[in-house]
Amino acid sequence: MDLKKNPELIPLIEWWEKDGKSTVIMLLVAAIAVGGWYGWKAHRASVKAAAADAVANAYTTAELEEAAAKFAGQPVAGALKIRLAKSYYDAGKYQEALGCYEALAKDAPDGFADIPAVGRAQCLEALKKFAEATKAFDDFVKANPDSYLALTAKLGAARSLAQGGDKKAALQRLETLKKDVKDDELAKARVEATETAIKRLK
User: Fold this and answer.
1) CA distance 99 to 88
2) What angle separates helix 114-126 from helix 130-143, to the nearest 10 degrees?
3) Quick one: 117 and 195 in the same domain?
4) Which of 50, 60, 88, 148 has the most Cβ atoms closer than 10 angstroms to its Cβ?
5) CA–CA–CA angle 158, 88, 44 (5° rounding)
6) Structural domain that includes position 168
7) What residues contact residue 85 under an 8 Å CB cut-off, 6+ apart?
8) All residues at 6 or more sequence positions from 119 whose CB lies less than 8 Å from its CB, including other chains
């Protein structure tokens, strides 16, 4: 190229020789970094979508175990563990359910802290550890009197007391509870159903 014919290119050539190459390299590095960031963001979004899909569509214990292991570090992990614990409980695997609920007690998802505490007590009841179960239910009610699971825990405590041999104390608790819920038909029906079950205990 004849610079005499194109003197306007002289500053551009000087810039290229002095700073141009390093500037282009920096721009390439920046482009790669930005592309990497967007790639990472897209990856996170796809993992999040897959995790949400697993929460909604994992049904069997095996599917829930796989999903809970796969998405252990994701925000949905707690919800998957709660479903897994319930699946173990429903399958009669009370020791496994207990382990899940105890692990969740330390790391329950926001808004779900009550579930592991009551779930743990229910597992102790199912494992015939009635004194421990009664205490766990009672401790929960004492700490969370206004919880949406307070009635469940009170009924669980009465059942555990009765199964542990103190049927009279259990029925006394239910009599008191019936007075507390007299204006709530659904709660009243639950108390009466528990009372009937306890009266049938040998």
Assistant:
1) 10
2) 160
3) yes
4) 88
5) 120
6) 113-202
7) 97, 100, 101, 104, 116, 119
8) 82, 85, 86, 89, 97, 100, 101, 104
